[in-house]
Specification:
It is built from 16 helices and 17 strands. The protein is of the alpha/beta class and 470 residues long. The strands form two sheets. Strands 1, 2, 3, 4, 5, 14, 15, 16 and 17 form a nine-stranded mixed beta sheet that branches. It has an eight-stranded parallel beta sheet with strand order 6-7-8-9-10-11-12-13. Helix 6 links the parallel strand 9 and strand 10. The chain binds zinc ion (ZN). The site of zinc ion has 7 residues, from loops.
């Protein structure tokens, strides 16, 4: 394998056990694996002799790639639909479900490519996607195919909905599936695509949509199915939980539990489970998530847009809950910029802890903690021990930002790491995933952006025509 040296980085953020930030940083990687990390001048001679490719990171801030733990890629096709712009979650869903019912396999492919490209350019190197309606023959296979084309490490969450309107659920019946068919397809996609090994580019997650769109039986059977493969297979579970106050009321009325207690009752706690949002967990639920090592995907922009509330991330982190970051679906964030989400995470925690007090606490979230949530935090909740930090033995998932950008002027002089979070988010300058150079000088090497955007926009227009909206 050719040995690549990346060197001369202004600062290299390792996120290793000591959280080292190395000035004039360098690393080498051999194929997909990092071999050495240190100062450029300390490169061992035996490695220097073997270097076949050099990447000069002068003027750049180098970090481990960010991990996106919650998204709905298909929603890029329904960004900023006027009728849904100012709605709360349940109304927003009811407006959009009939449009999503018209999705085709081609729509799933093009939106997956678009969302992953957008994520890649914002510093994301691993992403999960929670896709939970499969009309017109679309399958998780379409997403894996598209993800391979983009080159981002992909955890495809095979979502599902089974509780239609006629049974007291929220979605129209025609976007739900029979539970036996859901479980059968979940098994098929695990057997077809899931790779439990280190450096895997493909994993499958079993992911019923939410407490208000599936039955308790499907939640239990999904957990049993994921765990039936055995702990070494690392098949994780994911769903939405405690996103809004409406959902809390729904769970109390329909199931007799608060959302966090309902998850516990269903067997949906443990280090193989992560829940999106968790805005409305109370302190005992938070402590239970910490004790059971249940993960949380925090989605700050989506929580702001849908006015869902401020997730108690400070309290979760203090209690020891594993928290990662998610941009959430493109119709409730309208952007897939993971670095922007890091910034939003910091700002929202500072606001949240200030709402009940006359004098707030700016230490509620620091820039470095927000970056840790986006890297190590995401890796932990996806069950990965090979991504999230730059250290020997870890995957070569590396990003760099150009500190000479206008927006970092001044900030990059005083504290380049914090500048990345506090200043206006920029696109990535360089991205390497699994040892493959995918973005160079801000340009994706394997994707023609105008063609991708054109094809995507044509699909978005056609989708609305089919749904009778235009
Ligand atoms: Zn979501």
């Amino acid at each position: 394998m050719p040995l690549t040296l990346l060197h001369n980085a202004t600062t290299l953020v390792t996120m290793d056990a000591q959280r080292r930030e190395i000035a004039d940083g360098a690393l080498t990687f051999d194929g997909q694996e990092i071999l050495w990390v240190g100062r450029s001048e300390d490169l061992p001679l035996h490695l220097a002799a073997e270097v076949t490719q050099r990447i000069d990171a002068r003027g750049k801030l180098v970090l481990p790639g960010f991990v996106n733990t919650h998204h709905h890629f298909y929603q890029t096709l329904t960004r900023v639909i006027p009728a849904a712009q100012d709605a709360v979650l349940f109304d927003w869903l009811k407006i959009l479900y009939p449009i999503w019912a018209e999705l085709t396999p081609g729509d799933v492919q093009i939106s997956t490519q678009l969302a992953l490209t957008e994520l890649l350019l914002s510093g994301c190197t691993t992403s999960s996607d929670h896709h939970y309606l499969w009309p017109n023959g679309s399958r998780l296979d379409d997403q894996f195919e598209a993800a391979e084309r983009v080159g981002v490490r992909f955890h495809g969450a095979r979502g599902s909905m089974s509780l239609g309107e006629s049974a007291g659920g929220l979605p129209p019946d025609r976007v739900t599936e029979p539970e036996a068919a859901i479980l059968q397809d979940c098994r098929r996609v695990v057997e077809s695509f899931h790779n439990p090994r280190r450096f895997a580019m493909r994993r499958v997650v079993i992911a019923p949509c939410s407490p208000f769109s599936v039955t308790p039986e499907l939640m239990r059977e999904s957990a049993a199915l994921a765990r039936s493969f055995g702990p070494g297979m690392n098949v994780h579970l994911h769903t939405h939980l405690a996103e809004t106050a409406d959902e809390e009321a729904f769970c109390l009325e329909k199931f007799g539990y608060r959302p966090g207690d309902y998850a516990q009752e269903l067997g949906w706690t443990g280090d193989d489970v992560w829940h999106a949002h968790c805005v409305h967990l109370n302190q005992p639920e938070i402590e239970n998530f910490a004790a059971t090592r249940t993960g949380v995907a925090h989605c700050p922009t989506s929580n702001l847009k849908l006015a869902s509330g401020v997730a108690p991330v400070r309290a979760m982190r203090d209690a020891g809950v594993a928290v990662g970051l998610g941009v959430d679906g493109s119709a409730s964030n309208d952007g897939s910029h993971l670095l922007a989400e890091v910034r939003q995470c910091l700002l929202l925690q500072r606001l949240g802890l200030s709402l009940s007090k006359p004098l707030g606490n700016p230490k509620a979230m620091t820039a470095r903690e927000a970056l840790e949530i986006a890297t190590l935090g995401g890796a932990a909740i996806l069950g990965r021990d090979d991504i999230g930090s730059l250290a020997p033995g870890m995957a070569a998932d590396i990003i760099a930002f150009d500190l000479n950008a206008l927006t970092y002027a001044g900030g990059a002089v005083h504290d380049p790491v914090a500048a990345l979070v506090f200043c206006q988010p920029q696109p990535v300058d360089l991205a390497i995933i699994n040892g493959r150079l995918l973005v160079k000088e801000g340009v994706p090497l394997n994707i023609d952006l105008p063609t991708l955007t054109d094809n995507h926009n044509r699909a978005a227009r056609a989708l609305l025509v089919r749904a009778g909206r235009i």
